[in-house]
Amino acid sequence: MTSETLPLAATSLFRAVMVTAGWRCQCTGQCGEGHTRTENRCPRTHGGRVLLMAAPADPSTPDRAAAALPAAALRAWCPGCHTAARRTSLRAEPARQEGLFDI
User: Fold this and answer.
1) Is pLDDT above 60 for 3?
2) Which of 1, 10, 12, 55 sits at a 20 to 30 Å CA gap from 69?
3) Separation between Cα atoms, residue 87 and residue 79, nearest integer Å
């Protein structure tokens, strides 16, 4: 892996997630695709035109909370699967409004 394919920050966290994932997207259908031709897992790997990201295993995790997650709570995602999974998870849950009167 060359330095051009690693993030500028949190490289050890990113590398830990990617090694666990075998440098392959860990989506197993959360994006809406069955990935049936590739044993129910996205076939995209890190490098070249596809750069994977380390993002929460639960795509509905708010950004503020995601920034503090440990490697064990992260998964390798290709951009397409992550975007689709996040969109799907946000549609599935009603928006929770955070405010002064939360109990």
Assistant:
1) no
2) 1
3) 12
Return the SS3 of 53. strand
Could you tell me the two tokens for 35?
A: 């990935």
Sign of CA dihedral 65, 86, 30, 36: negative
Phi, psi of 65 (to 5 degrees): -70, -35
Report the C-alpha gap between 41 and 100 in whole angstroms: 42
Task: Give me 72's structure tokens.
Answer: 């064990």
What is d(CA 33, CA 44) in angstroms, rounded to the nearest whole number?
13
State the DSSP H helix or E strand holding residue 84, giving kind and residue range, or none if neither. helix 79-92
Q: Are 70 and 16 in contact (CB under 8 A)?
A: no
Q: Report whether 25 contacts 77 (CB < 8 A).
A: yes
